[in-house]
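Hey everyone, long-time lurker, first post.

I ran two proteins through the pipeline my lab uses and got sequence/structure pairs for each. Pasting them in order. The first:
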Amino acid sequence: MQTLKQSSLLEKDTKTVQKLSLNYRRAKHTDHSPDLNQLAEQFNYESCCDSYWNPVEFSLLYGTPLWEQASESQKVLLNQLYWVAYYSQIISAEIATIFFNQTSATGLYSLEGFRLVCDTLDLETSQERCHIHGFRTVIDQVEEKLFGQRVFSYPMRSLFRETMIFADTNRFKNWWKGVQLSCFGLISAANPFLACQYLTVRGIRTLNGKLIQHKLSQFHTKYPDAKASPIPSQISYYHFLDESFHFNTSTILSHDVTRCLKPPTAFERQIANLGIRGCQKDHYHVSVAVNGIFWYDPALYFPIYTLLRSPSFGLSIEEAQQMLIACFSEETEGLHRSFKTHDEAISSYQVYLEPLDFISTDNKQMKLMASNSISSYLKTQKKALTLFFQQQTLQ
């Protein structure tokens, strides 16, 4: 007969339990949701429309001819639009996180002794909603003022879409991605190992964010008077602090808690590796427009074209087209900076995955991501720009 109380393998692993407890206590004690909610309520674009919000190099199309030819006021605008574009992508990631945190918690709560893990994921889910509210408040005001419409952002939407907002996709790919995400949600909610493996994927994605968001957060901490820094900069700072704990959670669950579960079956290994492969596909591309977000730049042509034709830049059709050619199809400082970030991401992902013996060699080495190159990027842009100009002529 079974005894009334049986200790789980997690409860027997006191070191891992201590890591989980410390991370949860600190995250709860330093929860910045109230700060972010207050900042969102206080935000008024007019009060900081003349200020940089990020370090200068984190500006839209930094290091390209557009940046080099821009006036000071236009550079400030490009800096702000980097914030808008970057956090539009973060919203997409956090919408997905809200759902998969819960499916993972469902899969793990079925085991004895896993309440602490689930409570941590619940706290983080609440924080994600707060982050999204803060980002959207700023983004909506900026785009309404500048364009009167959404350009880099989008209405709230289902998570069963391409995770990358500007992706190399079509209707079939969108549908197939939705099917895959739906199936993984169902399977992981009933499978503790795969519930943990969502956190492996989340860890990689959060690690990419940490590479950039740490630098964005420093704009606030290095501001002459931090309390007077622009509200978007403060939002970047508090979001980074929350996400640091989220990354700790991902690492503990994917590296330590996994060891407290039964060894994965061949099927579970395959699903876990498909998830990492999907990350590689999402992060394969390199964006010269938004360094640090691995968007497919041809999908960004129209938003950038809209910006160039707006009163803020006032370019003619011909001038806007020539600027697109100069920025996207020619080798620039901005392109080299973006590939450097891409290389840094590959190296950090390799280190993160190295201890996991169920990850395939191709995934550990990030072979798909590493196969991208500057020559391949430029070839893609030249072909895509020709098609884009033809489509614009027909409209």
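...and the second, right after it:
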Amino acid sequence: MSNGNKTEKELQSQTDFEDDLLDFDDDDPLSATGVSKKSLVIFFLIDTSGSMRGKKIGELNTVMEELIPEIRRVGEADTDVKVAVLTFSTDVSWMYAEPISIEDFEWSRLRADGVTSMGEAFKELSSRMSRNSYLNSPSLSFAPVIFLMTDGYPSDDYKAGLAALQANSWYKFGLKAALGIGSEANDDMLAEFTGSKDTVVHAYSGGQLAQMIKVVAVTASQIGSKSMTLSDERDDEELNEEDVYAAKQKLLGQQIQEFVNNQDENDTVSFDTGW
């Protein structure tokens, strides 16, 4: 069926979907408004437990300092990109009291100590991902980007925290990726967080860590900060917002795995074992 045969309602639905961005609401995450300014929050969840002490946390700090200028180039002129960093060890802590515009964000070097309270970090993230807290932008909002980095298995009940997150609409529609650092990180558990093994990567050396963080963070931010449409193969089927976010997550996994496979093939990343 051609566009000429579609009803006015169907044409308007497709136009809205292609030209507008989705505005998330706590009750209805797919509601839309007419505001043109768009907002994207990138959440970094970072393990700062004692096992990260030494070279791991040192490398991570250096990479994150280098990453911020690269993220500043992500998005378009009408996209307000913000960064929020949640660290977890024995306690959970935000680097700043609210998400900071990428133009003003300055990395504060992290220190490592304590146990791995990942479940508590998940609960804290869920509590902050709402219009009443860290996602209170008055503008249209892209679904957030959520990037988890850890070198070990949680010391608390991470499943309870993950269940709280899974009930959060922002998490449900957000782009999620995870990085396992060193030999003790559990990729299966990280896949529970992202929902797909394709969006989980692993670093066994400082060189890999630097490459993986930059590629995953920049790729996720680029995909997350752009409108995306699905090809409407069936003319009688309206485009669906949930399908678009599923497609974004799938695209993220494909691009991450393409990078990983190319690195294996070309051996351009140092694969020295150990830290």
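Reply from user beta_strand_b:
Welcome! Quick read of the second one: The two ends are 59 Å apart (CA to CA). The helical segments are 8-19, 55-71, 118-128, 158-166, 169-173, 187-194, 206-224, 241-266.
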